[in-house]
């Protein structure tokens, strides 16, 4: 079978076309349709495929294998028939905005920072690009500023397929050694790169480019970038969040960071104070407790304060065992258990086995987490202590 004629190579702005159905066979849970020509860009070079319709059939995915493009459809088409096709243009244009945006940014970064672009992924809702060297936030800020400058200068994007001879004299970026016909996408003064995907005619159509985040990737960096409509949507979402915070906290936008910091300091101070008050109550509550072990349950008490209560109690009653549990039946408990008389490590092992205790400690004190109900915990701990008493 001949290679599918790629109409998107000739005109990235073509949305509809007529083609002849060469083959239609059942796929895993769809139909695989091969045409003589198509405007559907298949998944390749890190970019997701186009979507759209062929006649009455919805095309959800498009793949390419040995130059033959396979359209995954929800309905079969008659081989030999003519079919009208149309891609989801809104989505394709957004992909073009993000792909051209990435070329602009990568051209600038690779040139200015001497690194190489080693990875690219243009997915449904995000676009990532990897470079082989770490980049500072100043370098990224400057590259982002320059990329937007290039966008607003509305430079023409040139696409060509140079001969082998011409390619030899051309300095261009390429993620891997390419064979066969090489398509070059050039943004004059910024970037020359081998690429098979549809691109904007002019940089201005990308509108805006924003680096959303940067993370360490292998020896270099991975950037998350948004261009065009995606950048606009992200700005809108971020404004909605800010507006909500301005309203909830009755604080002007520019003072939000200080306000949140003050609130978090206040919450920290209150929780310390609340914990201290609860500690005083706990100390009184267990002071004359006749049972052994003495177990107490509480909420919102800091672990260091629980340890303090237990140490204070054991200093007065060295012959006893004391345990504090902070939490609830639903969320589980954070526990501290101590005794000078019993081996707490042995108790930890038994609790691990019976109640799924997670944690550790010394033979005098253990701490960790337990996901069980209060009644079950109390019963089990008392039973284990009695068993051990009887074996002594
Ligand atoms: Zn590309």
User: What is the total domain count?
Assistant: 3
How does CATH name the architecture of the largest domain?
2-Layer Sandwich
The best one-word shape is elongated
Q: How many individual β-strands? A: 20
- Ligand kinds: zinc ion
Annotated CATH homologous superfamily of the largest domain = Threonyl-trna Synthetase, Chain A, domain 2
**Secondary structure tally, helices:** 9
Average of pLDDT: 94
Q: What fraction, in percent, of the residue positions are helical?
A: 25-40%
SS-based class: alpha+beta
Encode the helix/strand succession as letters. EHEEEEEEEHEEHEHEEEEHHEHEEHEEH
Strand percent estimate: 25-35%
What is the strand arrangement across the widest sheet? Answer: 2-3-7-6-5-8
> Quick one: CATH class of the largest domain?
Alpha Beta
End-to-end gap: 86 Å
| Rounded Rg | 33 Å
CATH topology of the largest domain: Threonyl-tRNA Synthetase, Chain A, domain 2
Low-pLDDT parts are: none
Outline the biggest β-sheet.
6 strands, antiparallel, barrel
């Amino acid at each position: 079978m001949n290679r599918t004629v790629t109409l998107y190579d000739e005109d990235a702005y073509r949305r509809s076309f007529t083609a002849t159905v060469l083959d239609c066979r059942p796929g895993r849970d769809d139909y695989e349709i091969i045409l003589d020509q198509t405007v559907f860009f298949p998944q390749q070079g890190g970019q997701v495929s186009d979507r759209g319709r062929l006649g009455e059939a919805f095309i959800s995915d498009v793949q390419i294998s040995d130059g033959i493009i396979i359209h995954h459809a929800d309905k079969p088409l008659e081989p030999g028939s003519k079919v009208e096709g149309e891609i989801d243009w809104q989505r394709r244009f957004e992909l073009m905005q993000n792909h051209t945006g990435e070329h602009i940014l990568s051209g600038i970064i690779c040139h200015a920072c001497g690194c190489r672009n080693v990875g690219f992924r243009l997915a449904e809702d995000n676009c990532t690009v990897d470079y082989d060297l770490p980049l500072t936030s100043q370098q990224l800020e400057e590259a982002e500023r320059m990329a937007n400058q290039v966008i607003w200068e509305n430079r023409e994007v040139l696409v060509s397929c140079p001969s082998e001879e011409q390619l030899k004299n051309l300095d261009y970026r390429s993620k891997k050694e390419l064979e066969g016909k090489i398509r070059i996408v050039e943004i004059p003064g910024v970037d020359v790169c081998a690429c098979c995907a549809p691109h904007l005619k002019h940089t201005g159509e990308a509108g805006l480019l924003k680096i959303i985040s940067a993370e360490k990737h292998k020896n270099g960096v991975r950037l998350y970038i948004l261009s065009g409509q995606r950048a606009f949507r992200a700005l809108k979402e971020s404004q909605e969040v800010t507006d909500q915070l301005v309203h909830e906290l009755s604080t002007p936008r520019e003072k939000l960071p200080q306000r949140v910091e003050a609130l978090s300091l206040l919450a920290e101070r209150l929780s310390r104070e609340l914990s201290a008050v609860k500690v005083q109550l706990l100390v009184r509550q267990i002071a004359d407790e006749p049972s052994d072990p003495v177990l107490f349950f509480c909420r919102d008490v800091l672990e260091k304060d629980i340890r303090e209560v237990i140490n204070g109690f054991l200093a007065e009653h060295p012959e006893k065992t004391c345990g504090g549990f902070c939490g609830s039946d639903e969320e589980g408990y954070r526990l501290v258990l101590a005794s000078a008389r019993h081996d707490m490590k042995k108790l930890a092992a038994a609790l691990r086995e019976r109640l799924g205790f997670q944690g550790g400690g010394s033979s005098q004190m253990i701490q960790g987490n337990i996901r069980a109900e209060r009644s079950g915990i109390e019963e089990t701990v008392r039973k284990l202590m009695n068993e051990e008493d009887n074996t002594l």
